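Action item from last meeting closed. Structure (288 res):
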């Protein structure tokens, strides 16, 4: 099976460097037309206006691919709509959206400012929502769409100093859980990637040899798989250093204690309530 994207158009946010750049290059090398978005700026989200997106577009074109640069911010609703308008004006459709843009502001929960907390959520969560909502009607109308949301082990499992980042990253799973149901009937599939990669986000935080083994290009195949016709719907894939695995929200069998359950009943039965012997993923079907 070969996976080509010759009739497809993708938007990759935050694609001026790191993981997003690798995703954009790989899609373009497979014939996809790509809107390379990046507002530039530093890791903590300050600054902006660099030529990061244009540099990646130049790289794609030099390799014979097709791409256009977009310097908007995902956390600005007009800019988010602008990314979609750019794709529609240039190529008349959008098949793939990779929500990858992100920033990091680290602080312990004791120290974190609510301003920083809000800013991180505005990029990762609200920004993802803005761009995703802007492409949604197009994908639903054409009965085809592939949306990737970018989570993180910090969100799935926790990490000290990452309260805002972890909250924003686990929120990607919550968003996917609704989109996978609402998009299914129109062949709009939404999945989550949880990467670990050697980029400026992790530079200096892991030993040099580990950093080198964590090439961002090693995450890209899983993300590009999510962009294919074969993509699953509602899956969280983890990818790091060439290892790929699935992460799931599971539910155990639990215990029916009934009306009138007291705190004492919970305490007395706690071991059985939380017993993980028969855990399984739970499909939450739409109500009604
Ligand atoms: P990066 O800092 O190289 O890439 C993020 C890109 O997003 C930057 O080019 C930045 O300019 C852009 N960006 C930031 N705010 C933006 C905005 N408002 N609008 C448009 N673009 C914006 O870092 P990396 O590692 O490539 O991160 C990519 C994604 O992967 C992020 O969502 C990050 O949280 C996530 N991630 C990365 C991990 C890692 O180990 N590197 C681990 C888990 C998740």
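Sequence:
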């Amino acid at each position: 099976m070969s996976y080509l994207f010759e009739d497809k158009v993708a938007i990759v946010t935050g694609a001026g460097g790191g993981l997003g750049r690798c995703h954009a290059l790989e899609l373009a090398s497979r014939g996809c037309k790509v809107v390379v978005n990046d507002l530039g700026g530093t890791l903590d989200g300050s600054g902006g206006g660099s030529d990061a997106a244009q540099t990646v577009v130049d790289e794609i074109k030099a390799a014979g691919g097709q791409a256009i640069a977009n310097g908007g911010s995902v956390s600005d609703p007009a800019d988010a709509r602008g990314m979609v308008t750019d794709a529609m004006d240039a190529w008349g459709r959008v098949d793939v959206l990779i929500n990858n843009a992100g920033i990091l502001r680290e602080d312990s929960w004791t120290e974190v400012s609510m301003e920083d907390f809000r800013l991180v959520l505005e990029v990762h969560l609200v920004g993802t929502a803005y761009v995703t909502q802007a492409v949604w009607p197009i994908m639903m109308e054409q009965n085809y769409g592939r949306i990737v949301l970018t989570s993180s082990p910090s969100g799935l499992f926790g990490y000290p100093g990452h309260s805002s980042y972890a909250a924003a990253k686990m929120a990607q799973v919550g968003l996917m859980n609704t989109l996978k149901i609402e998009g299914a009937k129109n062949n709009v599939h939404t999945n989550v990637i949880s990467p670990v990669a050697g980029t400026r986000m992790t530079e200096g935080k892991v030993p040099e040899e580990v950093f080198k083994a964590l090439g961002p290009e090693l995450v890209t195949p899983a993300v590009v798989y999510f962009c294919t016709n074969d993509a699953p719907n509602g899956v969280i894939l983890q990818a790091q250093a060439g290892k790929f695995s699935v992460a799931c929200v599971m539910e155990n069998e639990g215990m029916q204690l009934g009306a009138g359950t007291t705190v004492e009943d919970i305490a007395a039965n706690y071991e059985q309530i939380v017993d993980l012997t028969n855990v399984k993923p739970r499909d939450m079907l739409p109500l009604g």
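Note appended to the action item: The CA atoms of residues 117 and 164 lie 5 Å apart.
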